[in-house]
Amino acid sequence: MFQKISELETPQIYHHLVHGVVPRPIAWVSTLSKEGISNLAPYSFFSVASVNPPVLTVTAVPSRDKLEKDTLANLLETKECVVNVVTEDVLEIMNESCADFAHNQSEIDALNIETLASEMIQPAGIKAAKVRFECTLRDTIDIAKQPAGGVLILLDVVGIHIDDSVADGTQIDGKTLKALGKLGGNDYSTVNDQITLARPSAPKTSA
Fold it and tell me: What pLDDT does 96 receive?
């Protein structure tokens, strides 16, 4: 089966993307509005853009009736956030934070989620998150200003919190972290089954 994008409706394209690009790590992003109201929202369009300097990417994809999410609005105003990595033990409460809260309502307060003060920025991190990246806004790139048109958010990492329970010396132990992956629809994946495979050397060529 081959499908031309020009012949597909937006919901069909979305379905193919979120079911085909899997699993995706989940950034649980905490921000503050200029009025000091905390916001917390998960994003699975999340990755690393650069290591030196360290830059994370989060893509905000607006819905039909809300062209700008609170996370993006807060970042544009205050330039700071914490990217909390979602793991198995916070799945339920993370999912609850997906509900459509009012603009002036804090998900953190409404759900009684415990937080920890950040070291270098104003927004607090989520206490239950085993890995937290303190970030400042580097840039935003508007892919398309329309429903389902993404805004690519580039975040400079200024500090990293690693819980001792998932640390192997000074490094993160991925097996202990048990990060979740987002699949299509309402589905998630775990990393309980892992395959370790060393990268091979290039084959030698004869002279």
Answer: 97
